[in-house]
Amino acid sequence: MASQTLTQMQQSSSAPALPGTWKLAAGRAITLEPREAGTLKVAHGQLWATYDGPHSGPLNDLGDHVVGVGEQLRLRRGQRMVIEAANGGYPAYFSWDPLPQPVAAPRMARVLQPLADLRLALALGAGAAGRLVAGLAGLAWDLAAGRGRETLADCALNAQSNACRAHGAMS
Predict the structure, then answer these.
(1) What pLDDT was estimated at residue 148?
(2) How far apart are alpha carbons 77 and 90 in whole angstroms?
(3) Which residues fall within 8 angstroms of residue 85, CB to CB, at 6 or more apart?
(4) Which residues, 6 or more positions from 62, have their beta carbon under 8 angstroms from its beta carbon?
(5) Domain encompassing residue 33
(6) What predicted TM-score, i.e. pTM, was given to this entire model?
(7) 8, 88: one domain
(8) pLDDT tens track for 108-151
(9) In this structure, are 92 and 12 located in the same domain?
């Protein structure tokens, strides 16, 4: 029985291939040793899969598995498995899909985001403090010039009439 790796496999032009799958001809075997964890899924036919040992456990857990249509096996990074078509003279089709890798947030992200939030808060606070100082300085100037006799009620009335004039109403 000939053995080859997945990268050496060639699709046969004599039979149509199933899209997104690899064809494993009858009497052929390949060795999978993935660089990243993934899932082997049978699309058509049956595969005989043998995990490299050492194996332990009951007799049916010695590393040999017959995998049918729709069934899948997971492989860890670097784990070896030999597969071959299990249906006598018929090929098997399978797909190999790497498992999604979790993306860890960089350590600095836990510091940079709060730092950006604090910078924004300080900028807004500085702007508000500046407007407060300007308002207090204007009030002090008005009091010194003798124009500061307005009461809060007068200020509210002036603000209301200014708002009404801004919207086109006459007071």
Answers:
(1) 55
(2) 30
(3) 24, 25, 26, 27, 28, 45, 46, 47, 48, 91, 92
(4) 53, 55
(5) 2-98
(6) 0.48
(7) yes
(8) 777 888 889 999 999 999 999 999 999 999 888 888 887 755 55
(9) yes
